[in-house]
Amino acid sequence: MNQEYPSTLLERAVKEFSKLPGIGRKTATRLVLHLLRKSEDEVESFSSAISTLKREATYCKECHCISDTDICPICANPLRDHSTICVVENIQDVMAVENTMQYRGVYHVLGGVISPMDGISPASLNIDSLVRRVSEGEVKEVVLALSSTMEGDTTNFYIYRKLQQHDVKLSVIARGISIGDELEYADEVTLGSSIVNRTPFIGKTI
Questions:
Q1: Which of 37, 44, 154, 179 has the fewest CB atoms within 10 Å, measured from its CB?
Q2: 8-54 maps to which CATH number?
Q3: Cβ neighbours of residue 94 under 8 Å, at least 6 residues apart?
């Protein structure tokens, strides 16, 4: 039985919120009613922030992380170690690693992992630009910080093969992160330890 709403305006708003990942109808209803109790200025500020983000946010030309400018603050920071690149799956992983305060290099966001079942091939990911960055000669180490899943390990191996011809150290975060876990949901202490205690990548999948 479909839930009935006392207002079609409420129903429409709930429908839009429930399209967000992890947001069911009950949570969506709670969020919408919360916004309804706010002042018009507060709601306008909320909607303006989302609209401006969508309209003006761009992606860093170097690492592909979200940015307000062509080059993100991390890549532009001369105090970061530009000889070390941490390869992650998505933007959430960049934020997760940054929260550990254990890493001072730069990043490379792939935009996913290789997953033929989901139609994601190497060509769908930001791998060629990673190879280009390494080929420029400044990079001494590439840290593979992908989730410890079959797809993550397959992607690690593919990158390993692509970078074999270059004189660069390839390492992988320590397996303090359980198999199947995503970096985004790892606690900061465990993730920080996994980065600090990274090990050489030996070119094998699971």
A1: 37
A2: 1.10.8.420
A3: 65, 74, 88, 107, 109
The domain ranges of the chain are: 8-54, 80-200
Residues 6 or more apart whose CB falls under 8 angstroms from that of 180 comprise 147, 148, 149
Distance separating alpha carbons of residues 34 and 138, to the nearest angstrom: 50
How does 26-49 read in b/e, with b if 16+ C-beta sit within 10 Å?
eebbebbeeeeeeeeeeeeeeeee
Find out whether 167 and 137 touch, Cβ atoms under 8 Å: no
pLDDT at 183 (0 to 100): 56
Question: Per-residue DSSP letters for 9-63?
Answer: HHHHHHHHHTTSTT--HHHHHHHHHHHHHS-HHHHHHHHHHHHHHHHH-EE-TTT
77 vs 172: CA distance, rounded Å = 24
Instruction: Assign a CATH topology to domain 80-200.
Output: Dna Topoisomerase Vi A Subunit; Chain: A, domain 2 (3.40.1360)
The pLDDT of residue 184 is 57
Question: Is the four-CA dihedral 8, 13, 18, 23 of positive or negative sign?
Answer: negative
For the chain (length 206 residues), average pLDDT per consecutive 10?
76 94 94 96 96 94 95 97 96 91 95 93 96 95 90 93 93 62 57 71 60
Gap between the terminal Cα atoms of the chain: 45
Other beta carbons within 10 angstroms of residue 100's beta carbon come to: 19
Query: What is the predicted pLDDT for the residue at 12?
Result: 94
